[in-house]
Amino acid sequence: MAFSPSFHLPLFFFLAFFLSPSSPLGDDAAGISASKIYIIGVRNDLKPSVFSNVEHWYSSTLQVLSSSADSHESSSRRTRGKRKLLHVYRTAFHGFSAVLSPAEAELLRSHPAVLAVLPDRPRQLHTTRSPLFLGLVSADSRPNSLLAATDFGSSVVIALVDTGIRPDHRSFADDGGLPPPPSSWNGSCDPGPSFPATSCNRKLVGARFFYDGYIFNARGGAGSDVFSPLDSHGHGTHTASTAAGGAAPNASFLGYATGLASGIAPRASIAAYKVCWATGCYDSDIIAGIDAAVADGADVISISLGSGVVPLHRDTVAISTLGAVEHGVFVSTSAGNAGPGESTVANVAPWVTTVGAGAIDRRFPADVVLGDGTVLTGVGFHGGKHVFKTSSFPLVYAGNASFSSFEAAVAPFCAPWSLDPAAVRGKVVLCERGEVPRPEKGLAVKKAGGVGMIVANGPTDREGIIPDAHVLPAVSVGYSASSKIKAYISADRAARIRFIFHKTQVEVKPAPMVAEFSSRGPNLQSPHVMKPDVIAPGLSILAAWPDGVGLTGMKTDRRRAEFNIISGTSMACPHVSGVAALLKAAHRDWSPAAIRSSLMTTAYATDNMGQDLVDETWGNTSNGWAFGSGHIDPEKALHPGLVYDLTMDDYLEWLCSYNYSSKDIRTIARRDVNCSEKAGKPWDLNYPSIAVVLEQSNVGNLEAVVHRTAMSVEKERSEYTANIKEPKGVKVVVEPEKLVFDGKGQKQEFVLKVSTGPVNLPAGNSRSEFGSVTWSDGKHTVRSPIAVTWRQPD
Ligand SMILES: *[C@@H]1O[C@H](CO)[C@@H](O)[C@H](O)[C@H]1NC(C)=O
Ligand SMILES: *[C@@H]1O[C@H](CO)[C@@H](O)[C@H](O)[C@H]1NC(C)=O
Ligand SMILES: *[C@@H]1O[C@H](CO)[C@@H](O)[C@H](O)[C@H]1NC(C)=O
Ligand SMILES: *[C@@H]1O[C@H](CO)[C@@H](O)[C@H](O)[C@H]1NC(C)=O
Ligand SMILES: *[C@@H]1O[C@H](CO)[C@@H](O)[C@H](O)[C@H]1NC(C)=O
Ligand SMILES: *[C@@H]1O[C@H](CO)[C@@H](O)[C@H](O)[C@H]1NC(C)=O
């Protein structure tokens, strides 16, 4: 699962298993395989009145289409039976999905009511201590004001669009004290194998599953799935319990991280929409899940999955999340685990809240002791008997233990079946990180007879290390330790090592840090919107795990536990979903943009040592491309003072400023827009962060004028003054310097004049500097980061 670094499936591995060079399907099948799933966006306002509902209309359009496409193609392969709609989308998205031949897709494109015909795409999936770290509870477990003010999020429904849920886990128990779901809730508990309709309760108020897109795309490979909302993977149970799991005392994992496990909004309701299956999650099913969640009345949708960015008018998930936001639903998404490289961030639409991962103040240290006495510290869990503390074992480099020259390229990464048992038996193996999912490395070493493993970072991952529950004792080490261990192996043919696993370490400094794997900006799709928006806990998060699923998620892993510790922006996203549910419970009238604004403007960019947030990868100061506005601070978000609100009109104006055509805007927003009446610049979207891009011309000064409108959310009269931190080499002037609000709902505008001298950059290059504008009335601090990028055109 690319979005959880524990389960990353690299492409070559994927291909090796799922595509054989000679297709078992015959010639005939080659024709069928030209048929694909398409998602069709439709203008429902053009529905002829003879059709009583859109479903009849779509269905009939499809029948007519397939007979006329038949006459064009004169193909014998197509069965002339009734064509089926895979899914009908009615709420967040308007349209349907169906299996079409390329000719049919082309014909449909020319239909006057059709806005877009887009191919289906796959996406990948991307806490005892985190509520304490977030300041939601005090050290003696007493709730602070946000939890108290919101009755722990009761009467708010969080929808998880994910791998389903394990309903009998104690994190989802109805403890008898929960209120019934809100009267507006219209979800259902759809039964299926191992999931009776009675699986739902007052905690789990809805459970549904969407698989038609997957069945077609998997082409017969869908055998081992459970076609019900039951989570047979683990990811969905983990994310759901992070957002809103009930209090579970005495939770721990292999004896680590013991304590009371609780979701962020422990009294909020959960609804599970299972859209991810054994080989991935397909857009056609994902938008069916989002559509259903909105129709059912969810308040928050949590989406911990993603893929590479495409323009918004071609991104059906982005389009349906705009539909959700239009219905007042807050949508949080994971930023992706493709860091630390630049411009790797996914889920970048300005109407969703994009969440990167931070490392909290808890670590799981483990030492590697070399035969020469050198002690190097990494991270790891070990639950079994601790023979490694006293006994040392011979150490071998995986790249020197390749089974044959055929595996030489993949053996350093401990790919399945690449290691020679004769070289590995009874030894600890040092495997390079990357290329193969980390749990698979452990399995490969164990199968070859190895007794332990070191997962060694390369120069890209540097010092960002992730502990995993490997199938054998294992320690993950950073690049500098890995270089020392490799030098030791090379120098000493009789190299031996010991491991020492330590207890859970808390109150680590500095914290938080930006997690190495967390995807980074700038946002390739729309560089004038800073993404990710915020970071939240995403490294080594303890949360519920389904019975019957191995700790590493691998089928061969027979180890079971009630809780599991995993990492990823997938884990960060539901923290924000939970906090958004609390804010929604406290402020029923806030829009999704107002909730996001309060999270962003109160986020902090300094750590528990008082220094600027550090990047775990290199240990240097990080910046807004990695953490956006900063790390969330839920208690402060309850009373932000001011918010930067956004309406559908604002998003439309922004789309115009991006030169999207009127047809594309209609596809995205399902309405006609006359862009010539809108004159805003792309950085004028009333966003809580500010990103200005200046095209270098080498003549004279560069200038941008940024407009913002702040709205008071406090009853009392207030007077705010601005404090500017200028980015290096940039002059920023704010007008006016003082904003006065009479009370709740009142708006005031201001402008920021951003100017710089020319900067000499090679063609095609860019450079960014960061600053901020902070409004304060003495009680509230409303901070917006400012990113200024100079870009030299090619
Ligand atoms: C609730 O769902 C049912 C069945 O799907 C539907 O008939 C009804 O109109 C829905 N009610 C609301 C208030 O949306
Ligand atoms: C937690 O476990 C300990 C030791 O097993 C036990 O004494 C205690 O009662 C348990 N607490 C709860 C709340 O279950
Ligand atoms: C791998 O084997 C080569 C050749 O024997 C040796 O030079 C090298 O040091 C070994 N590498 C490690 C990391 O052990
Ligand atoms: C931190 O250091 C790395 C490696 O030198 C560098 O690539 C990165 O840009 C630095 N980060 C920042 C924010 O300067
Ligand atoms: C939109 O087009 C105008 C005119 O060609 C250009 O100046 C502007 O930079 C474009 N905007 C974006 C965001 O690409
Ligand atoms: C868009 O607005 C402009 C300016 O108001 C007007 O001249 C033009 O006719 C409008 N275009 C359409 C298609 O309505």
Q: Count of helical segments?
A: 19
Question: What global shape is seen?
Answer: globular
Mean pLDDT over the residues = 89
Radius of gyration (CA) equals: 27 Å
- The secondary structure category is alpha/beta
Q: How helical, in percent, are the residues?
A: 10-25%
Distinct ligands: 2-acetamido-2-deoxy-beta-D-glucopyranose
Beta-strand residue fraction: 25-35%
Largest sheet properties: 9 strands, mixed
Q: How many DSSP E strands?
A: 39
What is the CA-CA span between the terminal residues? 36 Å
> Stretches where pLDDT falls below 50 for ≥5 residues?
1-32, 74-80
Protein name: Subtilisin-like protease SBT1.5
GO molecular function, one term: serine-type endopeptidase activity
Active site: 162 (charge relay system), 235 (charge relay system), 570 (charge relay system)
Domain Inhibitor I9: 38-126
Architecture overview:
The chain has 794 residues and is α/β, with parallel strands linked by helices. The protein is built from 19 helices and 39 strands. The protein is globular, with a radius of gyration of 27 Å. One 2-acetamido-2-deoxy-beta-D-glucopyranose (NAG) binds at residues 397, 400, 486, 489-490.
Secondary-structure blueprint:
Blueprint (H helix, E strand, L loop, with lengths): L10 H8 L8 H7 L2 E7 L11 H20 L13 E3 L5 E6 L1 H8 L4 E6 L2 E4 L4 H4 L11 H5 L7 E6 L41 E6 L2 H7 L16 H10 L3 E6 L2 E6 L7 E6 L1 E2 L2 E3 H14 L3 E4 L1 E2 L9 H11 L3 E5 L18 E7 L2 E2 L1 E6 L4 E5 L13 E5 L23 H4 L3 E5 L5 H10 L4 E5 L17 E4 L1 H13 L4 E6 L3 E2 L6 E2 L19 E4 L3 E4 L18 E4 L2 H18 L5 H10 L12 E2 L8 H4 L6 H4 L4 E2 L4 H10 L4 H8 L20 E6 L6 E11 L5 E8 L5 E5 L2 E4 L5 E10 L9 E11 L4 E11 L3
Parallel strand pairs: 6-10, 6-13, 7-10, 13-15, 15-16, 16-27, 20-21, 21-22, 22-23, 26-30, 32-39
Antiparallel strand pairs: 1-3, 1-4, 2-3, 5-12, 5-14, 8-9, 11-12, 16-26, 17-25, 18-19, 18-24, 20-24, 28-29, 31-33, 33-37, 34-36, 34-38, 35-37, 38-39
The structure holds 2-acetamido-2-deoxy-beta-D-glucopyranose (6 copies).
The site of one 2-acetamido-2-deoxy-beta-D-glucopyranose has 2 residues, from strand 8.
